[in-house]
Amino acid sequence: MQKALLRLAACTALLLPFAVHALPLARLNQSALLHIPAQDVPSFKSFVGQTLNEGPAGTVAEWSSTARPGKFPVKVLLNPGAKVETQSAGQCRLLSAQVSQSRTAHQWKLWFCQQADGSWKISGLE
Known about the structure:
Elements: H1 2-15, H2 41-54, E1 61-64, E2 74-86, E3 90-101, E4 104-114, E5 120-125
Antiparallel strand pairs: 1-2, 2-3, 3-4, 4-5
Keywords: Signal
Protein name: Surface antigen domain-containing protein
Organism: Acidovorax bellezanensis
């Protein structure tokens, strides 16, 4: 049980800059995101932010963690949807993600909405 809680906390920490308030975190517990090496976390966060800010809709962006001895790299494919304007949340974007490591893969569709300060907040899981 304690190991599962630590995994959940680690995965949550990866996504905290994106304000993970509405995301069902139980789905992240089994994610390959948990295996991103600590030294690669800043690069991963930057990749997600850049994809949300600049990624053309329908174009897949790819990121991989650093190769380590005896470990498969974590591979992340992000496919941003078109930016949409909403009355309640402002500018939002659906981000399709495939996270894999070796033969394990998880797919998500997350809604992100841009905040007044330019940051992105996860607002839902599709």
